[in-house]
Amino acid sequence: MSEDEKNPAREVITDYAQAHFRYFRTVDGTVYAQRNGHPVARPIRSQGTTGSHRQELMVGLFRDGLGVFNGTALKEALDLIEALALTEDVQPVHIRVAPGFDGATWLDLGRDDGRSVRIHPTGWNITVPDPREVCWRRTQLTGELPLPVKDTNGKGIDLLMRLCNFSDARAESLALAWLVGCLGPDVPVPAPFLTGPQGAGKSTAGKMLVRIIEGMSGDLRRAPKDEENLITAVAAGWVTGLDNLSHLGPDLSDLMCCIVTGAENIKRALFTDGDVVRARYRRPMLLTGIDVGVIRPDLAERLLPLRLERPRVRRTEAELWAEFARDLPVILGSVLDLAVTVRATQADIPTDLRMADFAHLCAQLDAARSLGALDAYRASLDDLNDDVIEGDLLAQTILKRAVDIEPGTDVRMTSAEWLHGLTQLYTGEGEFRPLPKGWPTTGKVLSDRLKRLQPVLAARGVLVDWGRTRTARYIEMARPAPPVDAQQQAF
């Protein structure tokens, strides 16, 4: 063969790559490579330990007898492929759970053969998804799930509840609702907070719930010390479990609110001056701990307290986890059966709860199985409101002041007047006790605190609103009039 007939190495690599891989880009411009007929996609610039596209390209060229190419040729070929892919259609990539066509959702089993679970209101089945319907993104946190068992008749639910030490049926129904919610890519679900005395098996139960979705390699971890590390961990997996929490500071509390309901983080791209990297995240979370102290009101609306009790009979870790690994295919199959049943069930959407999507899921679960999940969810929120009030002296003082407000009437004052009155009420008890740390120092600070406490106070029958006259702004507190009995209305 003459020198003129030889193809440069970069052209050989490019032709091979375009023949064996599909290239596309995501909305943020990242280019991914997907082997023909396989749903797993890898960013072409990744150098990760889970296997990069550069590595699979080199292996493919070698095994197909095309030789070994140097780094320069590979770089030039990938540069050209990346430039060509920027003109292709935009398609998202997903970790573990993804939306599909015709109202279906998908669960990645983390298997090398690409087999996944398609969940639809008409049933679920195991198959390899069309690469143009679902593109899986895998990381080191993507564990392998066993093939779920079909037609379990709910046996897996009983097996799971025998392994966990939930204190009552209310906690069990909320745990099931959360597991079903984790299989939905678009439904924000509150974070279960597993509490109970020492030795109740909170960490063990938390690991089991996480591993139903993430596989046996899923685990709980300590809360990172900074926001960036937590966001990195959240973005690399689906369910994030934080173990043995003892304190929730304001920054961590606000970040958890964002993770549960969804937010976006932007930072400067490495080795650039103006480019940025966007990280969008909305993930299910799970927390364990005995007591985390004061819970902020906005986080309380996004938590799902599940209480556990100490088991009467202790078992070894080896025995417990061997039984769980053996039962996991049946447990996963039962959860999938329940998810199908719930999605095929019609129910009214509760309009009085903040996380209406999860409340609707609880209502569907009740309509399908009569588990009392919605009532349990309301009761759990009521318990959390009590926790918030017990940990906030300002909220306690406001409720004491509200007793003097006649039902059906309101009181309007400026924020400074409210602050003066509440401070007098607090310090006037006893012998002029000192103000606690964190007590509002200005009317503006009081107004901001009231905005956080507004949902909690409303749940206790105290309505707070803001307005202004021509001369000043005011804060209004009111107690709604009790409902008039229907028989009294008749007279």
Protein described:
The chain has 491 residues and is an alpha/beta fold. It is built from 16 helices and 17 strands. The chain has helices spanning 9-20, 53-63, 71-85, 155-163, 169-182, 202-214, 227-235, 250-261, 297-300, 317-343, 356-369, 373-390, 393-402, 415-427, 443-459, 486-490, and strands at 21-25, 31-35, 40-43, 97-99, 105-108, 116-120, 123-127, 136-137, 191-195, 240-242, 263-268, 276-281, 285-288, 303-307, 410-413, 463-468, 473-478. Strands 1-2-3-8 form a four-stranded mixed beta sheet. A four-stranded antiparallel beta sheet has the order 4-5-6-7.
Brief characterization of the structure:
By secondary structure, this protein is an alpha/beta fold. It is built from 16 helices and 17 strands.
Break the fold down into its secondary structure elements and pairings.
Elements: H1 9-20, E1 21-25, E2 31-35, E3 40-43, H2 53-63, H3 71-85, E4 97-99, E5 105-108, E6 116-120, E7 123-127, E8 136-137, H4 155-163, H5 169-182, E9 191-195, H6 202-214, H7 227-235, E10 240-242, H8 250-261, E11 263-268, E12 276-281, E13 285-288, H9 297-300, E14 303-307, H10 317-343, H11 356-369, H12 373-390, H13 393-402, E15 410-413, H14 415-427, H15 443-459, E16 463-468, E17 473-478, H16 486-490
Parallel strand pairs: 3-8, 9-13, 9-14, 10-13
Antiparallel strand pairs: 1-2, 2-3, 4-5, 5-6, 6-7, 11-12, 15-17, 16-17
Helix pairs in contact: 1-3, 4-10, 5-10, 5-11, 5-12, 10-11, 14-15
